[in-house]
Specification:
- There is one protein chain.
- 28% of the residues lie in helices and 37% in strands.
- By secondary structure, the chain is an alpha+beta fold.
- It has a single domain, classed as 3-Layer(aba) Sandwich (Aminopeptidase).
- The model has no long low-confidence stretch (mean pLDDT 96).
- Bound molecules: coenzyme A (COA).
Length: 177
C-alpha cells in the first residue's frame, strides 16, 4: 500500500523558537508559489535553477503544484504565527524514470528565512518521505559555490558521495532503512 504523503503535515520548532509547519503542497498553492518566486533574489534563483529566471511559467506552476505524491512529492514549509501562515520554503523529491529507488531533490528557502535551520529540517522530512516510498537514494545538483547547501548536506548526518564536474557538485545521498 502507498504511504499517504498527500496529507503529510508536521510541525517543527526552529532553533530560535519560531514554529514552522511542513505540509504536502496543494494545487491551491499555485498563486502563492508564483508570487513568492517573484520575491526571490537572483542569487537564490540561480542556486536553485542554475540560471536567471524571471518567473515561473504556467506549465511549471502546474508541474510544481499538481504532484502525485508517488513519483513526485513536494512539501511547503510555512512560518506559523497564530492562525496566519507565511511561506518559508518548498522542497521536492522526484523519482527518476526507470529507477524507482532513485530520486532528485531540490529545496528553496525564501531569502528572509535562510539561515534559520529550515533547509536542514526540510532535508530530513524529504528523507522521511523517501524512506516511506522505498526510495533509497536522493541526488542533488549543487553549484560549486553554494556553501550553504553543501554545509547542510555535510552536517545532515546522512551518508553521501559528491562528484564535482563542470562547476556542479553531483551529490548522491544514500538512505538507510
Ligand atoms: C541552501 C538552502 C536550501 C539552505 O537552507 P537554509 O534554511 O538557508 O539552511 P539552514 O539554516 O538549514 O542551514 C544549513 C547549514 O548552513 C549553514 N549556514 C546558514 N547560513 C549560512 C551562511 N550564510 N553561510 C554559510 N553557511 C550557512 C548553517 O550553519 C547550517 O549548518 P549547521 O548544520 O552547521 O548549522 C537555502 O539557503 C536556499 O534555499 N538557498 C537558495 C536555493 C538553493 O541553493 N537550493 C539548493 C539547491 S538543491
Amino acid at each position: 500500500m502507498l504511504p499517504d504523503l498527500a496529507s503529510y503535515c508536521h510541525r517543527e520548532t526552529l532553533p530560535d523558537g519560531q514554529v514552522i509547519e511542513l505540509r504536502a503542497i496543494r494545487p491551491g498553492d499555485r498563486n502563492k508559489l508564483r508570487d513568492e518566486f517573484l520575491k526571490l533574489s537572483k542569487a537564490t534563483v540561480r542556486d536553485r535553477f542554475f540560471s536567471i529566471k524571471l518567473e515561473l511559467t504556467p506549465t511549471e506552476l502546474s508541474y510544481f503544484t499538481e504532484v502525485d505524491f508517488d513519483h513526485h512529492v513536494a512539501l511547503v514549509a510555512e512560518l506559523v504565527s497564530g492562525t496566519s501562515r507565511q511561506p518559508a520554503a518548498v522542497g521536492r523529491l522526484v523519482r527518476k524514470p526507470g529507477q524507482p529507488d532513485h530520486s532528485e531533490i531540490a529545496i528553496t528557502v525564501t531569502d528572509s528565512m535562510q539561515g534559520y535551520g529550515i533547509g536542514k529540517i526540510m532535508l530530513s522530512h524529504l528523507a522521511e518521505c523517501a524512506r516511506q516510498l522505498g526510495v533509497r537514494h536522493m541526488d542533488a545538483s549543487v553549484m560549486a559555490g553554494n556553501t550553504r547547501m553543501m554545509k547542510l548536506i555535510r552536517n545532515s548526518g546522512l551518508a553521501y558521495k559528491s562528484h564535482l564536474q563542470d562547476g556542479i557538485n553531483n551529490i548522491s545521498i544514500s538512505l538507510s532503512a
